[in-house]
Amino acid sequence: MAVRQFEHFIAVDWSGAKGARHKAITMAVAHAGGGPPVLVERDAGWTRGEVRDVLAESLPDNSLVGLDLGIALPFADEGAYFPGWDRSPPDAKTLWALIEAICVGDEHLSVGSFVDHAEASHYFRRHGGREGSRFGAGGATGGRGRLRITERAQEEMGCKPYSNFNLVGAAQVGKSSLTGMRVLHALRGKLRVWPIDPLPHNGSVAVEIYTALASMAAGRSASRSKIRTYEELDEALGNLGSETLRKTGPVDDHSSDAIVTAAWLRNAARDDALWSPQALTPQIAKTEGWTFGVA
């Protein structure tokens, strides 16, 4: 028997970009009873606050929510998120609280105050060639920045993860993750976040996802994980055993990421091994978290 039985599988493709509304933020829902995943759309795009409110107040019972963002920063490599800073938090939840405290005045759940903070900025690579003196610490190689244990495991699966301390370039994930941590802080007491919170016996749960893993499970390669036509999207859904959308023409990759990942979550949630990764220790769980789907 699977570890948990969920009724709804929700994938959220996230964005840390400036501004209020973002076409890049997409949400798709798949149901345990079958059928193709369905996009939950906003005409002008979602705000981060609207997603937060749905997860806090309108989430269907017994949902598994996949969030395409890093739920914490690297810790294990140096025994701290920010080695040498006396405000460096001891665990992920305290990290979320620190980011929120510094950014409480930033609009749209943005994080400019944190990445430009006099002390925190030393650990990030920012635009304009501003690389903090501690960005490449912790054994980072190739200028990519520090990685979590789960990201090292992603590398072994053929992926190329980027550091959450990197805020520059098309592949940067730093601002998405940091803005997401503000949302996670707001959801404390309302939605449990695995594995930072133990998997509960009932109720809804959020997990970190990496949409490339879903695409790979659907028959794509890591280098061709983005899907930009409905024909390719239906092929991927079929490979996951899902009913297809039966549409033709172009589709934006944010929508296809969410749709494919919702279908993948419906399958992956039944795999007990994905809830018990070999490298996931209690210390890593509470400090770095994990990416669901990395065994």
TrEMBL record:
Q: Which domain of life is it from?
A: Bacteria
For this entry, the protein name equals: DUF429 domain-containing protein
List the source organism. Aurantiacibacter sediminis
